[in-house]
Amino acid sequence: MRRWNGWGDEATNYPLPDSAARYLAGLVGDGPRLEDASLDEVLGSIRTPRLPAHPGISTDEKDRLLHARGQSLPDWVALRSGRIGAFPDGVAYPASDEDVRALLDYAKRAGAKVIPYGGGTSVVGHINPLPGDAPVLTMDLSRMNRLLAFDEASRLATFEAGAAGPEIEKQLNARGFTLGHFPQSFELSTLGGWIVTRSSGQQSLHYGRIENLFAGGRVETPAGALDLPPHPASAAGPDLRQILLGSEGRLGVVTRATVRVRPVPVYEKFLGFFFHDWEAGAEAVRAIVQAGLPVSMLRMSNALETSTTLALAGKADLVKLADRGLRLLRYGDGRSLLVMGVTDETGNRSLVWDIEGEAGRIIRAHGGLPTGTFIGKMWRKSRFHAPYLRNTLWERGYALDTLETAVPWSQVSATAEETQKVIREGLANIGERVLVFAHLSHVYNDGASIYVTYLFRRAADPSASLGASPDETLRRWHLLKDAASRVIVAHGGTISHQHGVGFDHLRYLPAEKGALGIDMLKSVCRQLDPDGMMNPGKLLEK
Ligand SMILES: Cc1cc2nc3c(=O)[nH]c(=O)nc-3n(C[C@H](O)[C@H](O)[C@H](O)COP(=O)(O)OP(=O)(O)OC[C@H]3O[C@@H](n4cnc5c(N)ncnc54)[C@H](O)[C@@H]3O)c2cc1C
């Protein structure tokens, strides 16, 4: 069963090894012991639903709670403190396009706002009802998870949009194919969610971002159904698919999507390399991508991310041994880890060896040290498990969040450095230390995305011996998030490379789109949703 106030399945845990707990305490201090609100307390705070009765809409309190918040840090603070504010008044589980259409008509008659809900893994407040007079209907697409059509010759598969990562891969793998879209939230996030948030999977270098994979689909909008045919390419005016991508539930409900699939790889591996410092690694990564070498992933961690990842893995003896060996080879405190993926679906081994050989040559020329597949295997094993650590860290008194951007190569170093600096120093005036580190997660010919992780102590409530202070924890997060967002904007970075805009990034969007651009987006919303009922207050104000 899914956790109501954290990440993932209740039966899955990620215990923190003692050595890792000591490592974190050394960097930011011991986490305070704080109590969270209980499920009963939270259920007791839910008000009477304001929607007229409908046989297909659940007004069950647990259902409403489970759809009230996503996975952003403010969402965690709200859920764990029980101060959730607004809940959906009802949750519908449509099973077909017709159900979705009928529910939109019902919502219009009831004067309700509608929030499409995929996996609820948003980290920027996308699916949260906002306080207001109108009732809120959340439409959970989880029953719409079937493969509807498979065109092997064209390598196109059409799914209902509520299909989550594992459901998609299971149905494709059975036919020898894969979508290859693996965001870290893969376990729970859905095709519809990926499309409307412009998601990026961990191996996007090989498979492409969701906008490369999305070939067409259907959206039920308040103004009617919009079909987007899966043309391989088209010069017939602006591409309407691009307007749907990133629309964040504002235009309607995506009910089905056709995606470009590929054969399951016959060969795949992830290799680890150490560099003397992050700058050298970043240069090597740039050279590899600009040489056009078809590797599937280049994840370049900085020194603190490298040491923290190894510390959290808990293999203290092994890490100590590796440390000694690496120091002998002059890979000291600045050593930074690259994980490189190689994927091949052709079965042509010599092609793979050529790619590995050429990438290896570039890496060595930048001082990189090959370490084989051991670290890559560890990364692969924990790639979807790592988010469970957030549950453990929270309970140990630590709040963890991530943010990301993309900038041209010429801006990468300065943006990464300054973003981390303002976060690292962001709570110094209250005597709190912040652990912050980064990696290049997705790389392109012209630039890269910078993915920043930061951890700070939750705040204790001075009036209670064990109690948490959600306001103060939230205030700390706001300070750090605002400071980092301002640096990103000042460097001309996008406010999001992959998480989207939602509620948390909304006020930074005008800097990126300009006033005219924002007006264009608003008029598209008005055209398809004249009454403003679709997910208001996300992506755009109102
Ligand atoms: C631990 C963790 C790791 C993550 N890793 C990544 C990552 O590697 N890459 C990445 O890109 N993102 C990542 N994310 C962010 C998140 O998973 C993505 O934004 C994802 O695309 C959201 O999909 P979802 O199905 O959960 O959508 P939801 O969270 O349910 O909704 C997100 C938005 O999409 C809308 N929506 C959902 N379904 C539909 C639909 N069918 N029609 C219309 N609108 C719809 C909602 O209204 C909302 O505005 C991560 C999040 C977490 C918590």
Textual characterization of the structure:
With about 550 residues, the protein is α+β, with helices and mostly antiparallel strands. The protein has a domain at about 265-380: Alpha-Beta Plaits (2-Layer Sandwich). The chain contains 19 helices and 18 strands. The strands form four sheets. It has a seven-stranded antiparallel beta sheet, sandwiched between helices. The protein has a five-stranded antiparallel beta sheet with strand order 5-6-10-8-9. Helix 1 (about 20-30) packs antiparallel against helix 12 (about 305-315), helix 4 runs antiparallel to helix 18 (about 470-490) and helix 17 (about 410-425) runs antiparallel to helix 18 (about 470-490).
| Helix-residue proportion | 25-40%
Number of helical segments with 4 or more residues: 19
- Annotated CATH topology of the domain at 267-381: Alpha-Beta Plaits
What is the CATH domain class of the domain at 267-381? Alpha Beta
* CATH architecture identity of the domain at 267-381: 2-Layer Sandwich
The total count of strands amounts to 18
Measured on Cα atoms, how large is the radius of gyration? 23 Å
Report the sheet with the most strands, covering strand number, pairing sense and barrel closure: 7 strands, antiparallel
Give the spatial strand order of the biggest sheet.
15-12-14-13-17-18-16
| Average pLDDT number | 96
Q: Which segments are poorly predicted (pLDDT under 50) over 5 or more consecutive residues?
A: none
Rough outline: globular
Hetero groups in this structure are:
flavin-adenine dinucleotide
Question: Which structural class do the helices and strands define?
Answer: alpha+beta
How far do the termini sit from each other? Answer: 34 Å
Percent of residues in beta strands? 15-25%
